[in-house]
Amino acid sequence: MYLPPQLKFKHIAFGCILLVFLFSPFHNFVTHIAVFFSQQHIINQETALSRIEELRKQNIALMLKVRQGQFLQQENARLKQALRLQEEKKCTLIATRVIMFDLSMWRRIAIVNCGKRQGLREGLIAIDARGFLVGKIIEVQNNYSRLMLIDDPDFSMPVFIGNDTVGMLTGGLDGAKIMYIDNTEHIKERDKIWCKISYVGFPVYIGEVKATYTNRNALFWDIEVNLLSENPLLYDIFIIK
Fold this sequence. Notes:
By secondary structure, this protein is an alpha+beta fold. The protein has one helix at residues 5-89, and strands at 93-96, 98-101, 109-112, 125-127, 133-140, 145-149, 156-161, 165-170, 177-181, 192-195, 204-213, 221-227, 237-240. The chain has two domains: 1-90; 93-240, Beta Barrel (Thrombin, subunit H). The protein has one helix and 13 strands. The protein has a seven-stranded antiparallel sheet with strand order 1-13-4-5-6-3-2, covered by helices on one side. The radius of gyration is 39 Å and the shape is elongated. 21% of the residues are buried. The model is unreliable at 1-10 and 17-23 (pLDDT under 50).
C-alpha cells in the first residue's frame, strides 16, 4: 500500500517510540540482573579470599603446634639423657638455660638463669645433655651467671689427647685448637680430646682431633678440634656442681 512520505515518516516514528516504551522496562530489568550478579560475584570472591586467609592461619598454627611438640619431645629426651648421665657418674647437675648473649662480636659469653641461689660458683664447668664440655662459669650473681663458651678467644684449659699427650686448649672465633704440642707422632685424626676436673670423678670429653699443622720453623704443632657439644644457645646446659 502506498503511503505519502510524511505519513510514512510518522508511522516509523510512532513505531520507534512504541519499541522504546515496550523494551525500556526489560532493559532496566536486565541491567538490575547484571548488577545483582556482579555484586554477588564480588561478595563470593571476598568470602573465598577470607576463607583462604583463615585456612592459611589455621595451617600455620597447626605447623607451630607440631614443631612445638617435636621440640618438647626432643627436650624431654635430652633431659632423660642428662638424668642417666647424673645417675651413672654419681654427680649433681644443675640445669640452666641461656637467657642472654654477650653483644660483642668477638666474645662468646652467655648469661644463664642460675646463680648463687642455685649453688653455682666461679670455675664450675658446663656440659650438654650428652656430657660434652660447653664452657665454664666465670662470674656468679644471685640469680644469673656468666658462662664462657669453649670457642671464646679467652677460653683456655689443659686437656688430654688420647691417653698420652697433654696440651692447652684455646678458643677462637674460627674454632678451638690445642697448642704447645711438640710431637704429633702418636696423634691421629679423630682421637678423643678430654679434660680432668679436680672436683669431677670422671673424664669430660670435649671433641676430636680434626687436623694437625705447624708453621715453618715453629717449635710446636697446633691441633684443630672438632667440638662435640650441642649448640648451647638452643638447648639446656648442665652445670656440674
